[in-house]
Amino acid sequence: MEPHQFMSRSTLVGATFLAVLMAILAVWSDLPGPAADDLFYVGPAISYAQHGRLYMPLLAGQQFPTREFLIYPAFYQYMLGGWLKVFGISTRSILAFVQLGYLVAGFAGTFLASRLAGRLPSPGWLWPSMIMLGLLVTLGTMGFRPDVWAFGVMLAGFCVWMNGAFVARAAGWFGVGCSLMISPNVLPYAAVLAVLLLLWRDGRPGRRTAAEVGPLALAAVLVAALFLASIQGRWTEFHQAFLFHARRAVLPPLESLDVGLRRYVNGFRAHPAFFVSLAVCALATVRAVAARSPGRPGASRFLVCLTALFAAGLLSVAMTWIREELRLFTLVLAAGGGCFWILLEGGPAARRMAWVGFVAVFAAASWIKDPLEPRWLPAARPDPAHVREALACVAREPGRIFLVDAYTARSVFDYHLPVNARDWEFSMPFPKLNPTSPYAIPPSQTWIVAGLTLKMVEPAVVRFVPFSIGPLRLRRMARAFDVYVIDGRLPARRQLGLPEPAVRAAAR
Questions:
Q1: What is the pTM of this model?
Q2: Fewer CB atoms inside 10 Å of the end CB: C or N, the chain?
Q3: At what angle do helices 348-366 and 324-343 cross, to 10 degrees?
Q4: Which of 102, 35, 43 is nearest to 68 (CA)?
């Protein structure tokens, strides 16, 4: 592909400043928000930062065959644990680590998009804007899953690979291999991008790929060595733990597709921004096909890449029933669709209007965790009195077993969790995973959980209160993000403020 300048020095400095500013804003706003499996991923990293070993006491209820985290390659846990060793254990520190992953993915992905777009006409502000668009996705995503860092490392690996030298190609393949160790869920993306880049490297389809055998083999050896080091050479234990977890996490293909489709349908209400991006991608693709012209030599290539990545995203969703893949592949579609729309939408004024409208809609929709609970409302924060009550409960009995969730790990403990803390989401032996009732808590346990978690097992706690945003009259769940402390030795209904069944019957 012809040499080209990705961005001028001044533009790159400006884009970096804005990207870092947006990342800081996201960290300050406590974004991305909590997700059910945060403690699953963060717990071993905290253990590594504190003790130098990947212990997982938060998952004691799952009865894994090993005490240490050998469920799958722990590249992400080592990365996060090393970060926490340097910058300290706190919610802000973890959020900053996640945002750094988005920055890496945003810059690397935009660089690749600029190369794949070739000589498509593009205004100078297009590629910096694409980085901003990628970061806007963080406002709607959830949790501390490793997929974002895997995505960023994979894209960065391909950027290095495009340098062309033997060492650069080996380093690039090494980065791609490490991304698969961080999260295997990026495998479809890696496979699609590898094929596309091999075919279109330097703009000459069909270029010999035999020269890649050496760099690829060297990278494979290095990744394998790093993997064995990460599990301390304990292959047998790793294999047992990996299979133990895989039987729970992977669904049969047809069932997985069914779950994936239902997640798309149900996700429309909770994450409208992602479906806005799908619509934009569809419109951009139709317009690209209708506007095919010899004057746009890179349009066909870019369209093929976008379509292939769309298929990779669908395949990734079909591989497992977790949700983050939806956000990852819609990030690709949003960036690609927005780029196409701008490039093919007529004159400069139309391009600017299209871009401003797209970003405005995407940002507005992404900022809201769900349609009725903006994060910046005071109701999205717990009552300080209830936080003090929870901390006092732990101080009185520090050796007691406390079941906590991703919300209280942030808002109450700032990830300085009690010694005997357990992850509420994974506190029961498989296949139950989480408790089913607050009225059967063992006397040795105390729950410290948020209202959103508690409503899963006791819908009676759900109450809605009205609120306004300008002329809009809406309602939200009362105490959705507030803290509930439920001691297993005391009557749960009294602690929840609910009437006893007999009292309710008499009231009727």
A1: 0.83
A2: C
A3: 160
A4: 43
